[in-house]
Protein backbone atom coordinates (compact mmCIF):
# COMPACT_ATOMS: atom_id res chain seq x y z
CA UNK A 1 0.00 0.00 0.00
CA UNK A 2 1.20 3.43 -0.94
CA UNK A 3 2.07 6.50 1.05
CA UNK A 4 1.57 9.29 -1.44
CA UNK A 5 1.89 13.06 -1.51
CA UNK A 6 -0.76 15.68 -2.16
CA UNK A 7 0.83 18.90 -3.41
CA UNK A 8 -1.35 21.95 -2.80
CA UNK A 9 -0.82 24.48 -5.59
CA UNK A 10 -4.19 26.19 -5.95
CA UNK A 11 -3.42 29.35 -3.96
CA UNK A 12 -3.71 32.88 -5.24
CA UNK A 13 -0.07 34.07 -4.74
CA UNK A 14 -1.26 37.42 -3.36
CA UNK A 15 1.86 38.18 -1.31
CA UNK A 16 4.20 37.13 -4.12
CA UNK A 17 2.74 39.66 -6.53
CA UNK A 18 2.46 37.28 -9.49
CA UNK A 19 1.81 33.58 -10.03
CA UNK A 20 4.72 32.10 -8.07
CA UNK A 21 3.91 28.64 -9.34
CA UNK A 22 5.63 29.59 -12.60
CA UNK A 23 8.90 29.85 -10.63
CA UNK A 24 8.43 27.02 -8.12
CA UNK A 25 5.98 24.30 -9.02
CA UNK A 26 8.06 22.26 -11.46
CA UNK A 27 10.90 22.02 -8.93
CA UNK A 28 8.50 21.08 -6.13
CA UNK A 29 6.83 18.36 -8.21
CA UNK A 30 10.23 16.97 -9.27
CA UNK A 31 11.47 16.49 -5.69
CA UNK A 32 8.19 14.82 -4.65
CA UNK A 33 8.16 12.56 -7.69
CA UNK A 34 11.71 11.48 -6.79
CA UNK A 35 10.61 10.45 -3.28
CA UNK A 36 7.03 9.20 -3.74
CA UNK A 37 5.55 6.46 -5.90
CA UNK A 38 2.40 8.52 -6.42
CA UNK A 39 1.53 12.19 -6.11
CA UNK A 40 -1.64 14.18 -6.49
CA UNK A 41 -1.31 17.76 -7.69
CA UNK A 42 -4.07 20.18 -6.66
CA UNK A 43 -4.60 23.18 -8.94
CA UNK A 44 -7.23 25.87 -9.53
CA UNK A 45 -10.15 25.08 -11.86
CA UNK A 46 -8.82 27.63 -14.36
CA UNK A 47 -5.37 26.00 -14.61
CA UNK A 48 -6.18 24.14 -17.80
CA UNK A 49 -2.65 23.83 -19.21
CA UNK A 50 -0.39 24.93 -16.36
CA UNK A 51 1.39 21.57 -16.13
CA UNK A 52 2.25 21.53 -19.83
CA UNK A 53 3.35 25.19 -19.70
CA UNK A 54 5.74 24.33 -16.86
CA UNK A 55 6.94 21.06 -18.39
CA UNK A 56 5.46 18.95 -15.59
CA UNK A 57 4.80 15.36 -16.61
CA UNK A 58 2.58 13.29 -14.37
CA UNK A 59 3.49 9.61 -14.22
CA UNK A 60 1.06 6.68 -14.29
CA UNK A 61 -0.54 6.67 -10.84
CA UNK A 62 -0.14 10.43 -10.37
CA UNK A 63 -3.32 12.53 -10.35
CA UNK A 64 -4.31 16.07 -11.12
CA UNK A 65 -7.23 17.53 -9.15
CA UNK A 66 -8.85 20.88 -9.72
CA UNK A 67 -10.15 22.36 -6.46
CA UNK A 68 -13.28 24.25 -7.47
CA UNK A 69 -13.46 26.08 -4.12
CA UNK A 70 -9.73 26.88 -3.90
CA UNK A 71 -10.49 30.60 -3.75
CA UNK A 72 -12.13 30.01 -0.34
CA UNK A 73 -8.88 28.90 1.30
CA UNK A 74 -6.32 26.13 1.75
CA UNK A 75 -8.72 23.88 3.66
CA UNK A 76 -10.88 23.61 0.56
CA UNK A 77 -7.89 22.72 -1.63
CA UNK A 78 -6.72 20.15 0.90
CA UNK A 79 -10.19 18.62 1.10
CA UNK A 80 -10.35 18.33 -2.70
CA UNK A 81 -6.85 16.85 -2.76
CA UNK A 82 -7.59 14.00 -0.36
CA UNK A 83 -11.04 13.16 -1.74
CA UNK A 84 -11.07 9.60 -3.00
CA UNK A 85 -7.64 8.64 -1.65
CA UNK A 86 -9.17 5.91 0.50
CA UNK A 87 -10.39 4.31 -2.75
CA UNK A 88 -6.82 4.39 -4.09
CA UNK A 89 -5.71 2.38 -1.07
CA UNK A 90 -3.17 4.89 0.23
CA UNK A 91 -2.15 3.98 3.77
CA UNK A 92 -0.89 7.48 4.42
CA UNK A 93 -0.68 10.90 2.84
CA UNK A 94 1.92 13.64 3.04
CA UNK A 95 0.42 17.08 2.55
CA UNK A 96 2.88 19.34 0.75
CA UNK A 97 2.83 22.97 -0.33
CA UNK A 98 3.59 23.81 -3.95
CA UNK A 99 5.67 26.82 -2.88
CA UNK A 100 8.18 24.79 -0.85
CA UNK A 101 10.63 23.37 -3.44
CA UNK A 102 13.66 23.29 -1.14
CA UNK A 103 12.71 20.27 1.01
CA UNK A 104 15.40 17.64 0.47
CA UNK A 105 14.49 14.27 -1.03
CA UNK A 106 16.26 12.57 1.90
CA UNK A 107 13.94 14.37 4.33
CA UNK A 108 10.89 13.20 2.38
CA UNK A 109 12.17 9.61 2.40
CA UNK A 110 12.64 9.78 6.19
CA UNK A 111 9.12 11.19 6.54
CA UNK A 112 7.68 8.33 4.46
CA UNK A 113 9.63 5.79 6.53
CA UNK A 114 8.45 7.27 9.84
CA UNK A 115 4.83 7.44 8.67
CA UNK A 116 4.93 3.85 7.39
CA UNK A 117 6.26 2.62 10.75
CA UNK A 118 3.77 4.62 12.84
CA UNK A 119 0.88 2.99 14.65
CA UNK A 120 -2.32 4.74 13.51
CA UNK A 121 -3.63 7.23 14.19
CA UNK A 122 -0.47 9.22 13.60
CA UNK A 123 0.67 12.56 12.25
CA UNK A 124 4.34 13.03 11.41
CA UNK A 125 5.64 16.60 11.33
CA UNK A 126 9.22 17.70 10.62
CA UNK A 127 10.81 19.91 13.23
CA UNK A 128 13.94 21.87 12.38
CA UNK A 129 16.42 21.52 15.26
CA UNK A 130 19.76 22.69 13.90
CA UNK A 131 19.57 26.00 15.75
CA UNK A 132 18.85 24.43 19.16
CA UNK A 133 15.19 25.43 19.10
CA UNK A 134 12.47 23.35 17.54
CA UNK A 135 10.56 24.97 14.69
CA UNK A 136 7.73 23.01 13.09
CA UNK A 137 7.85 22.74 9.33
CA UNK A 138 6.21 21.22 6.26
CA UNK A 139 5.24 18.80 4.76
CA UNK A 140 3.15 16.87 7.28
CA UNK A 141 2.23 13.20 7.00
CA UNK A 142 -1.05 11.63 8.11
CA UNK A 143 -1.99 7.96 8.42
CA UNK A 144 -5.03 6.95 6.35
CA UNK A 145 -7.44 7.10 9.28
CA UNK A 146 -7.15 10.91 9.08
CA UNK A 147 -8.44 10.97 5.48
CA UNK A 148 -12.13 11.44 6.44
CA UNK A 149 -11.26 14.43 8.66
CA UNK A 150 -8.93 15.94 6.05
CA UNK A 151 -11.70 15.58 3.45
CA UNK A 152 -14.03 17.83 5.47
CA UNK A 153 -11.64 20.77 5.96
CA UNK A 154 -12.68 24.25 4.89
CA UNK A 155 -11.37 27.77 5.38
CA UNK A 156 -7.75 28.84 5.25
CA UNK A 157 -6.23 27.07 8.27
CA UNK A 158 -5.51 23.81 6.46
CA UNK A 159 -4.94 20.93 8.91
CA UNK A 160 -3.62 23.06 11.81
CA UNK A 161 -6.50 22.11 14.13
CA UNK A 162 -5.92 18.38 13.51
CA UNK A 163 -2.23 18.79 14.32
CA UNK A 164 -2.98 20.87 17.42
CA UNK A 165 -5.44 18.24 18.71
CA UNK A 166 -3.25 15.22 17.88
CA UNK A 167 -1.66 14.90 21.37
CA UNK A 168 0.15 11.54 21.49
CA UNK A 169 -0.62 10.86 17.81
CA UNK A 170 1.81 13.62 16.83
CA UNK A 171 5.26 12.29 15.96
CA UNK A 172 8.21 14.62 15.54
CA UNK A 173 10.74 14.07 12.77
CA UNK A 174 13.83 16.02 13.79
CA UNK A 175 15.76 17.45 10.85
CA UNK A 176 18.46 19.92 9.94
CA UNK A 177 16.80 20.51 6.55
CA UNK A 178 16.00 24.24 6.31
CA UNK A 179 13.81 23.39 3.30
CA UNK A 180 11.01 22.36 5.69
CA UNK A 181 10.79 26.01 6.76
CA UNK A 182 11.22 27.91 3.47
CA UNK A 183 7.77 28.85 2.21
CA UNK A 184 8.30 31.15 -0.78
CA UNK A 185 5.74 33.92 -0.31
CA UNK A 186 7.83 36.76 -1.73
CA UNK A 187 10.17 36.88 -4.78
CA UNK A 188 13.22 37.75 -2.65
CA UNK A 189 13.06 34.30 -1.01
CA UNK A 190 13.85 32.56 -4.32
CA UNK A 191 17.33 31.04 -4.31
Overall description:
- 29% of the residues lie in helices and 20% in strands.
- The chain is an alpha/beta fold.
- The chain has a single domain (3-189), classed as Spore Coat Polysaccharide Biosynthesis Protein SpsA, Chain A, CATH 3.90.550.10.
- Strands 1, 2, 3, 4, 5, 6, 7 and 8 form an 8-stranded mixed beta sheet that branches.
- β2 (39-43), α2 (50-54) and β3 (63-66) form a beta-alpha-beta unit.
- α1 (21-35) packs across α5 (105-117).
- The longest helix has 15 residues, at 21-35.
- It is globular.
- Total domain modules: 1
The CATH class turns out to be: Alpha Beta
Structural class: alpha/beta
Mean pLDDT: 90
Please count the helical segments: 7
Low-confidence stretches: none
The CATH level-2 architecture is identified as Alpha-Beta Complex
**Major sheet summary line:** 8 strands, mixed
Could you name the CATH homologous superfamily? Spore Coat Polysaccharide Biosynthesis Protein SpsA, Chain A
Quaternary form: single chain
SSE run = EHEHEHHEHEEEHHE
Please estimate the helix content.
Answer: 25-40%
Shape: globular
Strand content: 15-25%
Distance between the termini: 36 Å
Number of strands: 8
Amino acid sequence: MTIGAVILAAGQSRRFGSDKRVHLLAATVAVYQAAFEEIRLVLRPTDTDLTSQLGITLRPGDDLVRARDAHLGMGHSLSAGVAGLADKGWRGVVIALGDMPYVREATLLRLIERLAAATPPAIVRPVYHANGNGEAGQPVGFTADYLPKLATLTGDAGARALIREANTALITLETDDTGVLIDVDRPEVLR
